[in-house]
Design brief:
Rossmann fold; Methyltransferase type 11 domain-containing protein; two-stranded antiparallel ribbon; binds S-adenosylmethionine; Methyltransf_11; single chain; globular; alpha/beta; seven-stranded mixed beta sheet; 9 helices; 9 strands; 270 residues
């Protein structure tokens, strides 16, 4: 997050148009909205005092701090070692204690089986590779990590309402397939995630959360520029993705960066 904010301090030219940097006040607006988005999800988890909590897929200090504040003893498991190292620095800098950071794949976790009371993920599933099978392997790995009677809770974006972000996720998923030949689970209908949880868990409950706008996110996305993976494609394919990206940017300029609805699902480990 801070990296993004620092990045924004520069003037950016995107698609021939200048994207003015966010002012301090605008950055505060954006941050405020992000905190309320995070709180809205974490509040569904309830009181975490005395619980061993696994945060699976992601190391955002905002989420980690929120879990610690709710009383959890938190382990975060993230695939990308670079993100783990950056999070370690951010937690130190912000004085957030009580989080164990682990680098690894959630499907082959370097963690003791049945060592958590709650496994929680936020925004992980749409980024999983291996499509439906990847999502099943992930949920069954989480089941093995949680003590019988413990809980698994996940939230992720769904395509229930049209949104620019859903289009961006599709573009990134197509790019991923083009480069690595792997299908992502992606952003799909809520029923798919509910069925997935029902296959592995008992007492499944879910809740749809309406899109949560983040003020000024449109300018942040525009200023970040096209996904850098486009540069790794052969020229003809790169041109195709570049056109899609430019169309997406025009849409963002017209209607803003509209956000998807989120589905929260939780259930008990048998
Ligand atoms: C959209 S982000 C999650 C945002 C989240 N709120 C956070 O705290 O960062 C998804 C994260 O899941 C990670 N991820 C994707 N596949 C994974 C896997 N198989 N095992 C562990 N982490 C994974 C990605 O590297 C990325 O950091």
């Amino acid at each position: 997050m801070l990296a993004t904010i620092t990045f924004m301090a520069r003037e950016i030219i995107q698609g021939g148009q200048e994207v003015p940097p966010l002012t301090r006040r605008e950055l505060e607006d954006y941050h405020e909205d992000l905190i309320s988005f995070c709180d809205r999800h974490l509040s569904l988890l309830g009181d975490l005092r005395g619980l061993d909590v696994l945060y699976a897929g992601g190391v955002s200090p905002l989420w980690l701090e929120g879990l610690v504040e709710r009383g959890g003893s938190v382990t975060a498991l993230e695939l990308d070692l670079g993100r783990v190292l950056a999070a370690r620095e951010a937690l130190l800098r912000d004085g957030i204690e009580g989080v164990r950071l682990v680098a690894g794949d959630v499907r082959e976790p370097p963690l003791e089986p049945e060592s958590f009371d709650l496994a929680y993920s936020s925004g992980l599933f749409h980024e999983l590779d291996g499509g439906e099978r990847g999502a099943e392997e992930t949920l069954s790995a989480l089941v093995r990590l949680v003590r019988p009677g413990g809980r698994i809770a996940t939230d992720d974006f769904v395509d229930r309402v049209p949104a620019v972000q859903v289009e961006e996720e599709r573009l990134r998923a197509d790019l991923h397939r083009e480069l690595r030949g792997e299908t992502l689970y992606g952003v799909g209908p809520p029923e798919r995630l509910i069925r997935l949880h029902e296959r592995f868990l008992g007492d499944v409950r879910w809740r749809m959360l309406p899109p949560h706008p983040l003020r000024h996110l449109d300018r942040l996305v525009l200023s970040e520029g096209e996904p850098e993976e486009i540069l790794r494609l052969p020229p003809r394919n790169a041109a195709r993705f570049r056109r899609r990206w430019e169309e997406l940017c025009s849409r963002i300029r017209r209607e803003g960066y509209t956000r998807p609805a989120t589905l929260y699902v939780e259930g008990r480990v048998p």
